[in-house]
Design brief:
The chain is α/β, with parallel strands linked by helices and 281 residues long. The chain has 11 helices and 9 strands. The protein has a 3-stranded antiparallel β-sheet. Strands 1-9 form a two-stranded parallel ribbon. Helix 2 (29-35) runs antiparallel to helix 6, helix 4 packs across helix 11 and helix 10 (223-234) packs antiparallel against helix 11 (238-254). The longest helix is centred in the last third of the chain and has 17 residues, at 238-254. The radius of gyration is 20 Å and the shape is globular.
């Protein structure tokens, strides 16, 4: 949940690979991202202390957020142009935000539009697809904090007829289900650094997309992601390395694999005025 100093990406993952293919629905994932009312949640549940990460390498030189793609990035991404959203490529992309009032009506309308384009409609108070099947999924939790966060999200989804079930399990069962990707949605994080490397393969590479026990929780299997990781690992200069990381960031952001949660914008310390360095060492 918490991303400290931009070093951790806290996220809700969509979807587990055990979910039926029809429920992975890449065209519907952006709608859930719009429906997540981060401003209300951080104001009411977390006292307004947190901000949202805007990148997989948030608040660092490796982040693509707010930066147009460089010529080197565009060169790397050229074979996969359709995989990157234009606003992410030009650096103008921002995650959907609300006024924090708890209503979020404008975002609900936008989500309903997106879901309509994906083939969903309201029938009997439920959001259903063309075959009349209701849009429903399960969120896996192992702590009261996760359950509390999910509960608010579930309430917002219910307003559009989406059924989100919350299943709370013990830590042993939770880890077992993570290992086999037996979930629809989870809350997780990936620790990052200013020197990403081979761990990116274990998180986002196609090579582990079908292997149990990896950290590729969303089941990312994309040639563009693979190519950017290869370019990152093969970089022989700082310029090429930064370009490859930002290009990877743009491809992952364009995939709508996660709903970003919160980061702590400061590092907190505790101190006592009586404790200080001696006058003479």
């Amino acid at each position: 949940l918490l991303a400290v100093s931009g070093a951790v990406w806290g996220a809700l993952g969509l979807w587990g690979r055990s979910a039926p293919p029809a429920r992975r629905w890449p065209r519907g994932r952006p709608a859930l991202l719009v429906l997540f009312d981060a401003e209300w949640i951080t104001r009411t549940l977390f006292h307004g202390l947190y901000t949202r990460p805007d990148s997989y390498f948030a608040r660092s030189i490796l982040s693509s957020a707010g930066r147009p793609a460089s010529p080197r990035e565009r060169e790397l991404l050229a074979p996969f142009g359709a995989k990157v959203k234009p606003q992410i490529l030009d650096g103008t992309f921002r995650f959907p935000a609300s006024a924090g009032s708890g209503q979020n009506r404008a975002n609900q309308a936008e989500a309903f539009r997106l879901l309509g384009e994906a083939g969903y409609r309201i029938a009997g108070g439920a959001l259903v697809d063309g075959k009349g099947q209701r849009l429903a999924f399960e969120a896996l939790a192992s702590t009261p904090g996760q359950e509390r966060l999910y509960s608010r999200f579930a309430a917002d989804l219910a307003r559009l007829g989406i059924a989100m079930r919350i299943r709370v399990v013990d830590s042993a069962q939770y880890q077992a289900r993570l290992k086999s990707y037996d979930y629809d949605m989870i809350q997780t994080s990936w620790v990052a650094s200013l020197s990403p490397g081979n761990e990116q393969l274990f998180r986002f590479s196609s090579s582990v997309a079908d292997k149990d026990g990896s950290f590729n929780y969303a089941g990312v299997s994309d040639a563009a992601v693979d190519a950017m990781i290869v370019a990152m690992l093969a970089a022989a200069s700082d310029t090429d390395f930064v370009a490859a990381c930002r290009a990877l960031d743009r491809v992952l952001l364009s995939g709508d694999y996660v709903i970003p949660l919160f980061s702590l914008p400061h590092q907190w310390i505790a101190y006592w005025r009586r404790i200080k360095a001696p006058g003479r060492t």
